[in-house]
Write a structure and sequence with these properties.
heterodimer; A: alpha+beta; 6-stranded mixed β-sheet; 20 strands; B: 270 residues; mainly alpha; 79% helix
Chain lengths: 349, 270
Amino acid sequence: MSLVAHFTVARPALTTRFDLEALPGDVVGLIGPNGAGKTTILRVLAGLLPVTTGDISLNGRVLASAAGVHVPAHERRTGFVFQDLLLFPHLSALDNVAFGPRSRGSARRDARTSALEWLTRLGVDHLADRLPRQLSGGQAQRVAIARALASDPALLLLDEPTAALDATGAMSLRTQLREHLDGFPGVTVLVTHTALDAMVLADRLVVVDAGTVVQTGTPAEVAAHPRTSHVAALVGLNLVSGRARGGIITTGDNAALVVSSRVSGDVFAAFAPAAVSLFDSRPGGSPRNAWPGEVVSLAPHGDAVRVQIRSVIPLIADVTPTSIAGLDLRPGAPVWASVKATEIAVYPA
Amino acid sequence: MSSDKARSHGRAPLGLVIPAVITLVFLTLPIIAVVVRAPWTSVVDDLRSGDAATALRLSLQTTTCSALLCVVFGIPLAWLLARSEFNGKSAVRALVTLPLVLPPVVGGIALLLALGRNGLVGGPLHDWFGISLPFTTVAVVIAQTFVALPFMVISVEGTFRATDSRFDDAAATLGATRWQTFRRVTLPLAGPGVLSGTVLSWARALGEFGATVTFAGSFPGTTRTMPTAVYLGLQSGDPDVAIALSLVLIAVSIAILALLRDSWLSKVAP
């Protein structure tokens, strides 16, 4: 009883290949850069796009196959929370949520009763009579989630549920969503752009890049050992890929990275921005990894300042505001960056 | 803003202002003439007079039927053109538009040849069932619907296209069939377009003359609608009734303009 999906879907811009097997109760986070094919994957799962090859089955029922099976979207029992919600503008919040039960044959009264229940669970029952345009972003998002859940889906699809909200709003929705996903008996597939969503909401991450799955694992595994620069940036890590030999990693750009690991072959090396130190001239002493570069941008990051550096290895570094002043860092300024070998995590590619 | 622009660029050149004024006068003068020459003292009596009142009532009845037919038969075609893929779609759209540009008299001839007693469909209809359409009130409705339907189809198709089809996707994921989606999402969202399409096609039906007179003739009480009565009134030397009826039609046109100003005209010229 689960979701089994192995398919490709050919789109004019990109052919996306996707493989996923998930059990009831699983929350699968789908992460990757814009245009990687994440929304396309959700649309295929929902039945809004046909598969090109491969097949999808949900709880033992074949939903789509290259052999010509295509269960239409309205017969799939998937709940879809669209990125821009798509609440029906002419219906009240209550009627939006009642739409699913009504479509599946409930009497108007019963549909409205269950809709009100769902609005209550999401904490927006006092807004039942409002039209979507009279709702704030967070309220509309909750109504959209209630609408998807009220149609009793076996598969829940969420497309960037917190993207439209400010930081506080996103956090409170995230917390609430976590509770509902814990209680949701079906499979959830969640597209997200934020590391926090992925960490808080997902049990498992599927990293998509340029139309293929490049990594799967628990959020902790993926965050600790990212395999794409997108995920590394998402979780705030520097990522280098190259070939390791005798404690030295050589990148495609011929930069050399001294590491304390003895792993050899094709590897990834990851290190935190806080592990990167900046100097105004070539540093002496222990750090053997030092590269000259140029400051690209500076942005506040918690108590520190996050500095983006262009060098033979693109870097982000977190430094104190004091050292920004001391080093006279500003966009375009020359700088030396270094990182200790012991701070670098190395893992096979 | 426009006045700011006018000031910064100087006066509008006379080479444009003069023809513009001529155009304006040319377009409004005839309407003003009707209003000026209208027999205001007797206009109510003229409209109450037998012929005018009969024509008024007939026009009201037939155009209501035509507008309803346009709604019932125009919306489905508009939906097909806007939301489904089939071969020869552009040909279908061209065919739908044809009655818009076809001279109405030709439309009347075409209807006679199709539905007349010896017509393509009208022949068997008469021979087998004894039904004869031409020169009946039904013929008036048919002629009016023929010329008015394109307004409905085009107006509603435009509205269907303008509403985000992803609402259909959302409805589908919630378990709605395409028919349920049409009834509960697409159609309500297209409400303003349906309304303006209905008003437009009703107005076109009201003004219909050429096809009606050709296909339905001009029998008082059964097929003599307002435009026909206006024409015949003028011919038979009873211009007061003709002018009174014209006033009614002008008033209706102005009312329609006012009604559609927000929904339709604002889309054409925002």
